[in-house]
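User: Quick sanity check before I run a bigger batch. Here is a single chain. Can you write out its predicted 3D structure?
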Amino acid sequence: MTSRRQFVTQTAAAATMLAFPMVGRSQPAPVKIGVIHPVTGALAYSGQQCRAGALLAIEEINKAGGIKSLGGALIEPLLADAQSQPAVGAAEIERLNEAGVCSVVGAFASAICLATTQAAAKYNLPHVVDVGVADQIVQRGLTNTFRFGPGYTSVAELAVTNLAELNKSAGSPAKTVMIIHEESLFGSGTANLLQKSLPQVGFEVVEVIKHANPTRDFNNIVLRMKSLNPDIVIPANYYNEYALLVRTMQQQKVMPKAIYSVLGGAASSYKFIKEFPDASNGIIDCNHWFNPKDPRSQDLKKRAEAMGLFFSYELFMTYTAMTLLADSIDRAKSVDREAIRQALLSSTFSSHIMPYGPTQFIDGQNIGGRPLMTQVLNNDIKVILPIEYREAQPLFPLKA
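Assistant: Done. Predicted structure follows.
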């Protein structure tokens, strides 16, 4: 667990980096916001990407004059590390509460978000969930919890519908599916949804395999895949395991008609296609994705890449979650937690780069949140569905 000294040092460093003093008048008290992610441990890459997205948003907000309704108060991020463990995430919420934050953004993984939102609820601490997709996060009646992006039920339903349509349009070449998922709430929940819904649209699920997180060897799983020879492989896992699974498939020359991902950890990742262009080619993913027709998306992508970062869903989802929260604090005209919670409840935030439209929270879920379908084509990631955001025609099935 992060020591108090480390916690204060990290927070002070972030605040120093992001603060831009106002000249000619006294500066109002900063707005303290907790930023909690798994920046160490098995999920460190994704957690670090999330933190970078939050800090990019805060930098932008502060440069633009801070929270206007509070006299230009600057946002001061208080950073916390969940260390890829739900229990540590809950303990870090206790630290953030003691430090006087008015609200929290985080905490990437579904299992960690379950713990952090529950801990924050004890203090009526508004918690904006950036990525965590498990529907349980917003189904427990916690009035402090607000998820901007879609949950895994709506993502899985859309993915299955689109897969059936793609298959039908191609003459129905695919009939069998194999699902491989990591063991936590995210992977298991997604796999359960797919296992129930795929047969309803004509696919046979030949096997569902669960693996530990982390896993460093997929040879046996891929050998099993080779023996079953499914038409479609659906992985549901985080970045490291996803990348290793697909690379192992490539090494063993396993070539299904499609690798079709639902919230794939590496499927729509610029990092993955840069490091493993051959393995990633043709992969389809139903996932969080930005509006490719909004020029602000490309501006943010350039800013992230100038810092040596990949423009991943973790980064832009947390960036957007932070801007949503800042908008609510501005409308609340207060750092009072209940005032911020009420402002989130009534939010119609639309100044974002996601394909969502105005924000509307019902029982903590933004009902406008929607995923897009992407495919890796010619070493780039292109939106293939829905048609209004399409950048390229889908390639299905893959050609050997």
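The CA atoms of residues 39 and 47 lie 5 Å apart.

User: Great, the batch can go ahead then.
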